[in-house]
Specification:
Helix content is 43%, strand content 18%. With 319 residues, the chain is of the alpha/beta class. It has a single domain (2-212, 271-315), classed as Luciferase-like domain (TIM Barrel, Alpha-Beta Barrel), CATH 3.20.20.30. The protein has an 8-stranded parallel β-barrel with strand order 1-2-3-4-5-6-7-9, surrounded by 8 helices. Residues 1-295 form the Luciferase-like domain. This is F420-dependent oxidoreductase.
Length: 319
């Protein structure tokens, strides 16, 4: 199992500069890759450039970036720009469809044909990521590329069948977010089949998973707050209902806010789709994910009650 670290994933109440501390610690502990997620607070490429200043070795991946808010050239240029200002280290790009709440509610742009836009964008970005200096910046343009290719992987965040097909056809890696081992097993099967249809080697399969080793109460609350946003999402709500958290699922469907949902979720819910508990329990859960077919765990460390996720990242540091 490979391990990487997510410096920032979804919006919460953590200090806005906490991702810099998480990344610096992950690099110091020897993690090979750090992800710079994008959301209402952080632009993924700006954050990746900042992470490059506080890390020395780790590969950086920007995103997932919503494909409805940036054109393919901007995505490839962003990665090449970050590579150029961070000493030429590999920079990856992760793509996703995001949600209507983000695309329309934050960016004010329509989220139409998201699966089709993901497919179109992934194919174009893959080609642009490998363009060499001197080539047109895009086909037919009089402008020539001046920056070397960024050298990192193309990742596609996927859950539905069309997004999985896009990942199989174009990506080096497919990303899942907040999933159980049972979901991994099902989605790994779909990815295997899609890669066979596409005539390509199967992309690596990674998952962002909340992680808290020997969690403080504040850490548990932070993890549960992240889970709360998934209680109304098809494919996730069923997992939580089957795990015995149907009351919280019903509350979410009725429009309860995050604070109410966190109060309704028992601590055990945190371990349903993540790595939460003492070290032995977490290692056993890692084995469950490995048996289900996961190639890489991207740790999303809880930082409330554990600044920079130091306790968790140290306990799970690469051998």
């Amino acid at each position: 199992m490979d391990f990487s670290v997510v410096a920032v994933a979804r919006e919460d109440d953590s200090p806005v500069d906490e991702p810099l501390r998480v990344a610096a610690l992950a690099d110091r502990l020897g993690y090979r890759e750090v992800w710079a997620g994008e959301g209402p607070t952080w632009d993924a490429f700006v954050l990746a450039a900042a992470l490059g200043r506080v890390t020395g070795r780790a590969t950086l991946t920007a995103g997932p970036v919503p494909v409805s808010v940036r054109d393919p050239y901007s995505l490839a240029r962003g990665a090449a720009s970050v590579a150029a200002v961070t000493g030429g280290r590999p920079i990856g790009v992760a793509l996703g469809t995001s949600s209507r709440r983000v695309v329309e509610g934050v960016h004010g742009l329509p989220r139409t044909r998201p699966a089709a836009v993901l497919e179109e964008t992934a194919g174009t970005v893959r080609a642009l990521l490998h363009a060499e200096p001197g080539e047109p910046v895009v086909v037919g343009s009089p402008f020539r590329r001046r920056l070397p290719p960024p050298g990192g992987p193309l990742t596609v965040a996927a859950f539905g069948d069309r997004a999985i097909a896009t990942a199989a056809a174009h990506a080096d890696r497919m990303l899942l977010d907040v999933v159980s081992p049972e979901q991994v097993r099902e989605l790994r099967g779909k990815l295997d089949a899609a890669a066979e249809r596409a005539g390509r080697p199967r992309p690596a399969l990674a998952a962002w998973l909340p992680a808290a080793v020997d969690p403080a109460p504040e850490s548990l609350t932070q993890v549960l707050g992240g889970i709360a946003g998934y209680l109304t999402v098809p494919g996730y709500r069923e997992v939580f209902a089957e795990a015995g958290f149907g009351a919280a699922v019903d509350l979410a469907a009725a429009g309860a806010d995050r604070a109410a949902l966190v109060r309704a979720l028992p601590a055990a819910a945190a371990a349903t789709v993540g790595l939460v508990g003492d070290l032995d329990a977490v290692r056993a859960r890692i084995d469950d994910y490995a048996r289900a077919g996961l190639d890489e765990i991207a740790l999303v460390p809880a930082t409330d009650g554990d600044p920079a996720g130091e306790r968790t990242l140290t306990a799970l540091r690469p051998a």
